[in-house]
Write a structure and sequence with these properties.
By secondary structure, the chain is mainly beta. It has no helices and three strands. A three-stranded parallel beta sheet has the order 1-2-3, with no helix packed on it. InterPro entries: AN32, LRR_dom_sf.
Length: about 70
Amino acid sequence: KKKRWLTFPSAVRELVLDNSRSNEGKIEGLTEEFVNLEFLSLINVGLFSVSNLPRLEKLKKVMFCFI
C-alpha cells in the first residue's frame, strides 16, 4: 500500500521544483499561501521571469537559472 502525505502550503519550508515544467516561462501554483517558505529552487524549469512569483516574507534563499 502506497502512503500519501497531505501537506498544507503553510507547512512547507523548502520547495525544490528543479527540472519541472514552466507554463510559457512562468511558474504556476506557487502562491502566497506558502507563508513559511524559506528555500526555493527553480533550476532548469525554463523560467523567463520571476514577475509572477508571490511575495514570500520568510524566503531567505532562492536558486534559479534562466534558460
